[in-house]
Amino acid sequence: MSHQGNIYWLASYPKSGNTWVRAFISNLMRESSEPVDINALCTGPIASSREWINKALDFDINELSHDEIDQLRPEAYCWLSEQMNNPSYVKVHDGYTFLPKGRPLISQKASRGTLYIIRNPLDVAVSFAHHCDLSIDQTISNMADPQYCFADGTHKIYPQLRQKLLTWSEHVTSWLDRHTPPLLLVRYEDMKLNPLATFTKIARFLELPCEETAIENALTHCEIKNLQAQEQTKTFNEKPPRAKNFFRKGVVGDWQTALNEGQIRKIIFSHGKVMQRFGYIDEQNQPIIPFDYISARDKEALC
Amino acid sequence: MMYRAFGLNILSEIKLPPLLKTKANNPDITIKLKGVDKQGLAAPELIKPGGQTAPNEFWFHVPGIARFYITNGDSVHVDPEKGASEQSIRLYLLGTCIGALMHQRKRLVIHGNAVRIGNESVIFAGVSGNGKSTLAAALYQRGYQLLTDDLAVLDENCCVQPAYPQIKIWQDTADKLGIDTSQLQRIRLQIKKYAYPLESHQFCNAALPVKSIYILSTHNRETVDISPIVGMNKFVPLKNQTYRGGHLEGLGLKPQHLKHCAQLANRASVTKITRPKKACDIHQFVSLIEKELGKTERAA
Fold first, then answer.
1. Minimal Cα–Cα distance from B300 to chain A, Å?
2. How close A72 comes to chain B (CA, Å)?
3. Domain extent at residue B93
4. Residues contacting A95, CB < 8 A, separation 6+
5. Which 222-251 residues of chain A touch chain B by CB within 8 A?
6. A58 interfaces chain B, CB cutoff of 8 Å
7. CA-based Rg of chain A, rounded to a whole angstrom?
8. Domain for residue B251, yes or no?
9. A240 prior amide bond cis, ω within 30
């Protein structure tokens, strides 16, 4: 493995379990008997944080265009990575894209590795709609839009830099097929249904403690009901202003009751190929329902 | 052309239209179009992507715009890149370059704007995007005089030096405040941010001592929280409002900077204002700020 930089990227399409993983990492690193405060997760800032990138550069970027800022991001990540004494864990929602002249936006030199989290787009659509306070139909069409971005307006300044999300499928394949390893792919569904094995694999990949008791302890602290309980007593800083809450349900298969037939077909039409590749639909393009899915995964885990 | 801003005479080969001209002939700062080394400084102490710092020297390169070399607190060399617009170069001259020059001149520079309240000034500081310029524009609409937008340069007596009669506003701010941008000039073609000239009677062209500093931030709650910071606790938040504080290390100015911050903390009150992230009614918010500023006489 070519370990050049210090940054482990925690990459995912939004609403795929990234914050859950960050909560897990924070709890695992602290090894505390009390759950870590959701507003004090000890993973780094998001890769698209304007303040973070600004800190790396010696001049103002606030009056540069999105494209101009993107040109500066790879070197900024390298510098930030060089300042770190230990591996650091940085969330990223950008798709894996290249700048003109072929440089990757997410600099290889800054990277130690990438954990890519994938979640069934049928469930992502439901969760993402709540997150953005948009209709499910609008969300489905955003997920199929290759131009879809976060923070890409030119009329104001955003706390985050523009993030090209690409389509849901392109997001997945951009990271999995274009990015240079080391990369670990995990499925949200495996994290949910087979947590100990999946999170142990994550911890090992991320050079974190991976004894069973430590993993179990961290997992208990970041169970969805505990994260929800924390969010009820204090607001979560990372919640989008319009969303009711950040930690909503965190379940597998919510789409079965939340999506109608047309919506399901539309998602499968747009993302069928990638869904099939990662076991979310079968060869007849039929959704694999969570129950079957559990057994299949459990069997694999036992092997 | 000779200009006067930040309490200094600036002789510039590049036009700086928003600045007030002066007939003085003794420049404190000279801005020249001149070749700048492509690699950076001969002996940098701090190297960052696109920027290098050494005691009394600062070099930076904005791709597609220019290379800048700032030295001795009195000289800027600009080496524009092919096709760069004068507008873009100007923004860096009046932003990063002024900031570096002032650091080299051992001035404290706070990232914020300043408003006149009576015979004193109040600074609104905070990271970009937290509403500083919107607040400045809203207070301007309510008749307040402004001293500066974005860079509050303080002299040794903790007085804010007036900058120039212009603020920069995003389209979003203009929309909220009902400002028609169709007659305004964009500061760069690439973004919808405009130069908003101030009426001369609402530009305070005199240095005024700092009375208070308000640090703006946002949170995910529905309320506007206004909480004074007192005693020793003022120091760190104040230090964090320094414009591009990162320079100071390479400039070898850290102790000087800390001394300035302590001096300011002694003199001025510091208050944190946290507003909802969710778009809140700007007029209501400004009224609240006025009440807070308030009861003091309005600058006429």
1. 31
2. 8
3. 2-105
4. A163, A164, A165, A166, A170, A171, A174, A175
5. 235-237, 239, 241-242
6. yes
7. 19
8. yes
9. no
Q: Cβ distance B104 to B73 under 8 Å?
A: yes
- The whole-number pLDDT of residue B119 equals 95
Please indicate, yes or no, if residue B129 is contained in any of the structural domains. yes
- Ordered by start, the domain boundaries in chain A are 7-250
Q: Which of B46, B76, B105 is the last residue of a domain?
A: B105
B180 and B251 inside one domain: yes
Residues 6+ apart with CB under 8 A from A154: A65, A66, B171, B190, B191, B192
Question: From the CA of B186, how many Å to the nearest CA of chain A?
Answer: 11
At what angle are helices A261-277 and A121-132 packed, to 10 degrees? 120
Residue A289 has pLDDT above 90, yes or no: no
pLDDT digits (tens, 9 = 90+) for B29-64: 999 999 999 999 999 999 999 999 998 999 999 999
The answer on pLDDT for A174 being more than 70 is yes
A39 touches chain B (CB under 8 A): no
DSSP letter string, B154-211: E-TTSEEPP--SEEEEEHHHHHHHT---TTSEESSTTS-EEEEEPPGGGB--S-EEEE
CATH number assigned to the domain with residue range A7-250, chosen from the 4 options 3.30.565.10, 3.40.50.300, 3.40.50.2300, 3.40.50.10860: 3.40.50.300
Same domain, B72 and B211: no
- CA B40 from chain centre, in angstroms, equals 25
What is the per-residue pLDDT across B92-136, written as a single tens digit (0 to 9) for each? 999 999 999 999 999 999 999 999 999 999 999 998 888 899 999
pLDDT tens digits for range B252-267: 667 888 888 999 999 9
Which DSSP string do the residues of B25-69 spell out, in sequence order?
A: ---SEEEEE----SS--SS-SEEETTEEEETTEEEEEETTTEEEE
Pair B151, B192 in one domain: yes
pLDDT band at A300 (very low <50, low <70, confident <90, very high): low
